[in-house]
Amino acid sequence: MNAPPGRPNFVTAQHVAERAGVSRSAVSRAFTPGASIASETREKVMRAAEELGYQVNDLARGLLANRSRLVGMVVTGMEVGFRAHLTAALSKALIARGSIPLLINTGRTEEEMAAAQRILFGHRAEAIVVLSGSPPASFIDIARRNGQPIIVIGRSEPDADHVQIDNDGAAREAARLFVRRGFSRLAVAGSLSRTPNLLERERAFADEARRAGAHVAVVHGRDSTYAGGVDAGEVLFSAEGVQAVFCVNDLMALGLIDHARRVGLAVPGDLAVIGFDDLPEAAWGNYELTTFRQDPAAMALAAVELLERRQADPACAPARSKLTAPLVVRTSFSPA
């Protein structure tokens, strides 16, 4: 069992066969469900495999069968905010399904994007899940031309299955709740990143608030991060009068709340704030943020269900799974 210098000393099926005193094909049959093999032979193989710490090379099996169990997960900025939780939930759901998640963090430069594309399309992934609005359309186009099924979360693409959140409904609800409380000077804090989810929330809130007769200020942070929320606060609070702010995600809401307090505004006393995502930090005592909840586990399950549907019928029409985002009420704004 000595490997050449500098090579990993992996335990192979041949090593198991030699330890068990059986043929290499007997080892293969022992690990193939439904294969014909004597129970005594199978017991020998399993005992030898356990002694050696052998694991079946599922990747190699998939290549031989021309069927990969790899599922590409394409995301930009996976460490930031809600995307981190969605990435973790989808990885867990895919592993539970028996798939092998292949995480592709696209980066933001042209060089990083090109490297990510080479890695992703150099493997025979059975499907690709795009977890955010940031990766460029070129990823989707190349996957489509390679015949790989595509599931997109939080964006819209032709010829792809979709997992979507009811951004429009939640943002309009936020506007109506503010107006019902008697607020007439509202604001929406968006982001210059202008990803589809964030842009949909921003536009729906502004439209609904104006329909209700409220004045709406629309401001943008540099990005949809804590610092972006501070950016938005610096613009909003340079002039007096804003009573309530809807932030397109929780990270921005947290930054905006901290900046509001630095300039002497009390939340919720002087300013009401609603966010979107329900990150764990939203419940922290310093924020107690009222927000719309996205459930990463539910979104991951919806993506896996779409993948199963596509595998069962590759020619079926693209499907959309739309999930609601219920309001979680805390102290930054109370509808009552």
CATH topology of the largest domain: Rossmann fold
CATH class of the largest domain: Alpha Beta
- Number of helices, where a helix is a run of at least 4 consecutive DSSP H or I residues: 12
Number of strands: 12
Instruction: Strand order, main sheet: write it out.
Output: 2-1-3-4-5-11
SS-derived structural category: alpha/beta
Number of separate domains: 3
Backbone CA Rg: 26 Å
Which overall shape is indicated by the principal axes computed on the Cα atoms? elongated
Strand/helix succession: HHHHEHEHEHEEHEHEHEHEEHEE
End-to-end Cα distance, whole Å, is: 72 Å
Give the name of the CATH superfamily of the largest domain: Response regulator
Helical percentage: 40-55%
The main β sheet shows up as: 6 strands, parallel
**What proportion strand?**
15-25%
What is the CATH architecture annotation of the largest domain?
3-Layer(aba) Sandwich
Domain HTH lacI-type: 11-65
Organism: Pseudochelatococcus lubricantis
Keywords: DNA-binding, Transcription, Transcription regulation
Protein name: DNA-binding LacI/PurR family transcriptional regulator
